[in-house]
UniProtKB/TrEMBL annotation:
Belongs to the HesA/MoeB/ThiF family. GO terms for biological process: cyclic threonylcarbamoyladenosine biosynthetic process. This is Ubiquitin-protein ligase molybdopterin-converting factor. Residues 38-53 have a biased composition (Basic residues). It is a multi-pass membrane protein. Pfam families: ThiF (PF00899). Residues 104-360 form the THIF-type NAD/FAD binding fold domain. One of its GO terms (cellular component) is mitochondrial outer membrane. SUPFAM superfamilies: Activating enzymes of the ubiquitin-like proteins (SSF69572). Keywords: ATP-binding, Ligase, Membrane, Mitochondrion, Mitochondrion outer membrane, Nucleotide-binding, Transmembrane, Transmembrane helix.
Amino acid sequence: MSSFVERTATSNKAQLAATALVSGALVATAILGYQRAQQHHHHQQNNPRRSRRASSVAGTATQPISHGKSVPLDQEDLRNQALARRAQAGDYDDELILEQLARNRVFLTDGGLEKLRNSFVVVVGCGGVGSHCTAALARSGVSKIRLIDFDQVTLSSLNRHAVATLADVGIPKVQCLQRRLAAIAPWVQFDMRQEKYWEPVADRLLETWTGTDLKPDFVVDAIDNIDTKVSLLKYCHDHGLPVISAMGAGCKSDPTRIMVGDIGIGTDDRLSRATRRRLKLLGITKGIPTVFSTEKTGDGKAELLPLPEDEFAKGKVGDLGVLPEFRVRILPVLGTMPAVFGYTVANHVILSITGYPTDYATAKGRDKLYDGLLAAVQGGEERMLRHLTNGDASVTLGLKVPITPADMAFLAEDIYKARSAITGLPTRLTLIRWKKPTGTTLIRIGEGADEQKSSNLKLGDLVCMTKEEATRHDKLILRGDQTHEDLYDSATISKVEALMNEAASYEKYR
């Protein structure tokens, strides 16, 4: 019996099983603690009588969760941590650092390397993409790195994480990175924030480096949650923080198709497309560099959708998630691809900080197109209102439409793919109401000189056509007596209405 127990205790499988069980228990503890904090926060937000108390303890719900397992430090770890403390305190020969960075030094020049060594970078998301990006930044000379991630290393992380080992399973990803990279670049200072990035704590998580007025030189978005991703990019855009966003590495297999380009460049990548759509609705159509893949799906390739029937049988996504809006299934990811994405992100950050020339694909200059589409919509609303008031031109004076050039970009590019919904033609495009209004389109607020006039137009009211098609549509349907069935076949009507419903579903994000 004793020999059996001894064999079992020393068995690799038994050790792995024990590691997995302990890790699972620790992750569950972290998840439950996070959920309780979230519930407490939302309860206080929704209780007006406790608003003052909520404001005084709001940080409690967003403090770093520290339920990960403690790391048993071996002799090598202890030496690495001791060396890191000495190096960060200045007790480390600068010539050794320069020798380690010699290849970067001759490439970037002394001035470029100095900029890099004095830089401060924030990495949000420390999984496959973020870990490889962080490792490259630390190896290249960035001296101050803030790591933001609430998650922990799991067994399934090891196919793509830059530095995690079996010994790291169950510990926070931010701690794992610091632990391993201290053995490579001990002079790098890490500010570890084991918590979820979200809008209420953005000011704190993206604040200056502790004890200084040094703002982030760059922010890396390596988040795979669309709501959080959009929130981070919007914050950086509004606050003038340089940021680069990594799009989806899932289901990608061709490293030659990965490129850097502006957020305004169209791509069929799901995460890229969804992010671009949401940002356009927030008024951001360009100015954010992204790393994405132009690879197309095909027969035999991995797919995110459709889900197999057994996934649907498990229930709704909201019922399955261990955390609010957290992924609930393992995505198909080839372990090499997040590394390529991460190194491409790091490469852009390094070149940007040091001022090294870059020559990436540029966004299409279509601002004039969007302004022209908006002018056409404005003119269409004025004509419609005059028609509804029997030619009274005075009602259109000062009329405003609740639509922006960014809305035009979203509709034209992302909903209608820069083609007419009627014939598919890509030339001389415009946007026009699909349905004849049943009542007035005018909204009036105030009186006299303080009166405000606006149209009741919504995104889901508009359809993309060529100017010739729109002229006929306006004459025969909007200001005439014909119906859609008189002008279009059933397939076209169904297609248009499906696209309009898709556009309407995005109203909540504006």
